[in-house]
Automatic annotation (TrEMBL):
<keyword id="KW-0521">NADP</keyword>
<keyword id="KW-0560">Oxidoreductase</keyword>
<protein>
    <recommendedName>
        <fullName>Ferredoxin--NADP reductase</fullName>
        <ecNumber>1.18.1.2</ecNumber>
    </recommendedName>
</protein>
<feature type="binding site">
    <location>
        <position position="49"/>
    </location>
    <ligand>
        <name>FAD</name>
    </ligand>
</feature>
<feature type="binding site">
    <location>
        <position position="89"/>
    </location>
    <ligand>
        <name>FAD</name>
    </ligand>
</feature>
<feature type="binding site">
    <location>
        <position position="287"/>
    </location>
    <ligand>
        <name>FAD</name>
    </ligand>
</feature>
<feature type="binding site">
    <location>
        <position position="123"/>
    </location>
    <ligand>
        <name>FAD</name>
    </ligand>
</feature>
<feature type="binding site">
    <location>
        <position position="44"/>
    </location>
    <ligand>
        <name>FAD</name>
    </ligand>
</feature>
<dbReference type="Pfam" id="PF07992">
    <property type="entry name" value="Pyr_redox_2"/>
</dbReference>
<feature type="binding site">
    <location>
        <position position="17"/>
    </location>
    <ligand>
        <name>FAD</name>
    </ligand>
</feature>
<keyword id="KW-0274">FAD</keyword>
<comment type="subunit">
    <text>Homodimer.</text>
</comment>
<dbReference type="InterPro" id="IPR023753">
    <property type="entry name" value="FAD/NAD-binding_dom"/>
</dbReference>
<comment type="similarity">
    <text>Belongs to the ferredoxin--NADP reductase type 2 family.</text>
</comment>
<dbReference type="InterPro" id="IPR050097">
    <property type="entry name" value="Ferredoxin-NADP_redctase_2"/>
</dbReference>
<keyword id="KW-0285">Flavoprotein</keyword>
<dbReference type="InterPro" id="IPR036188">
    <property type="entry name" value="FAD/NAD-bd_sf"/>
</dbReference>
Length: 332
């Protein structure tokens, strides 16, 4: 992929909306690039609720967040668009009849049309201050910041490091599955808890709670074996651990819409039914858009992605048919 290779449509944001837009655009034979800032696709679904069941997507009686995203990646790979991760789009400039997108790594991406599927931005996992001293990168496989691939916790000792309610949600989810679940929090109380959460925690025989600071991760042969903690009396204890789950909240890095010149309404991109932004050639879909009757749901993002891609296609080539049936396109 040369720096100046021209794509038909470049989609910014690889959440569920961007993934579906990328699939749909390649299904319509467009040359597509998808750019995502995180190291994984799936957006909010993967960052907030990969383990939760979703019940409001047509065709799925229920589906967990990570299964949905895995299936979407399988779907988008059918036509193999160019898909980049760890790439943050900083600027979008119109140059002659193309757009040039510049990313934080200094690369330029040239495209005839753009679809914005950025949500409000991207979320980064917060960490306690002393964690920079802990040997995380080396033991990344043993430390997770969301509850994906939860079968790996079956019969294992799990430590949950958190200062808020998420610890209880995860602990209850793993109760009966993991061999042991121990919550470690600096304080006696987790933030944002409800009375019923405390009752559920107290009535559990298998979930333990420690008010302590994590002082080290004990590792044998690149595998986590224990989490060392120090309680308020200075006593140091090693908790047996195969895995550690950590959650200290998420911080939003907002997408630089102001620099992209698109008209906004309350921080979201103003569109009408055609998903066109105020800049000709730039379309938008998903949680990022605002219009009368907008719902922030995964399924709404899918429909908006179809419209945005079809309109982008028409922008590039006014002679194309706006809508095509997949049953007709594939004929199988
Ligand atoms: C707790 C919770 C529960 C929910 N439950 C449901 C539910 O049950 N059913 C349902 O339908 N919906 C639910 N939703 C809503 C659903 O998650 C969203 O509607 C959906 O995820 C929006 O997808 P999106 O792709 O539009 O945006 P996002 O998922 O926000 O994806 C945007 C992507 O763009 C990337 N990005 C942003 N800026 C840039 C940039 N400058 N460069 C490169 N990449 C960038 C981000 O990293 C991110 O991956 C829930 C939401 C939350 C928070």
């Amino acid at each position: 992929m040369g720096q100046n290779e021209v794509f038909d449509v470049t989609i910014i944001g690889g959440g569920t909306t961007g993934l579906f837009a990328a699939y749909y655009a390649t299904m319509r034979n467009l040359k597509v690039k998808l750019i995502e800032s995180q190291d994984q696709f799936g957006g909010k679904v993967m960052q907030f609720f990969p383990e939760k069941l979703i019940y409001d997507i047509g065709g799925y009686p229920d589906v967990s967040g990570d299964t949905l995203v895995k299936q979407m990646i399988q779907q988008v790979n059918r036509h193999q668009p160019v898909m980049l991760t760890k790439t943050w789009v900083e600027t979008i400039d119109r140059v002659d009849d193309h757009f040039v997108l510049e990313t934080l790594d200094g690369m330029q991406h040239v495209t005839k049309a753009v679809v914005l599927a950025t949500g409000s931005g991207t979320f980064h996992t917060k960490k306690p201050d002393n964690w920079d001293d802990l040997p995380f990168p080396e033991y990344r496989d043993s430390v997770a910041t969301n509850l994906m691939d939860e079968d790996k916790y079956e019969g294992k000792d799990v430590v949950i490091a958190s200062n808020n309610r998420q610890a209880i949600v995860w602990a209850l989810h793993l109760e009966g599955k993991a061999k042991s679940v121990t919550i470690v929090n600096e304080n006696d109380k987790l933030q944002q808890t409800r009375e019923e959460d405390i009752q559920q925690l107290e009535s559990s025989d298998t979930i333990a709670y420690n008010a302590a600071t994590i002082t080290n991760l004990v590792v044998d042969n690149e595998q986590l074996t224990a989490v060392e903690i120090k309680d308020h009396n200075g006593q140091v204890v090693k908790l047996k651990a195969d895995y550690m789950l950590a959650y200290y909240g998420l911080a939003l890095q907002a997408t630089p819409f102001d620099a992209w010149d698109v008209a906004l309404n309350k921080g979201r991109i103003l569109v009408k039914g055609d998903m066109a932004t105020s800049v000709p050639g730039i379309f938008a879909a998903g949680d990022v858009v605002q219009y009368e009757g907008k719902t922030n749901l995964i399924a709404s993002g899918y429909t908006e992605a179809i419209t945005a891609v079809n309109k982008a296609h028409k922008f590039i080539d006014p002679s194309v048919t706006e809508q095509l049936y997949s049953t007709v396109l594939y004929r199988k």
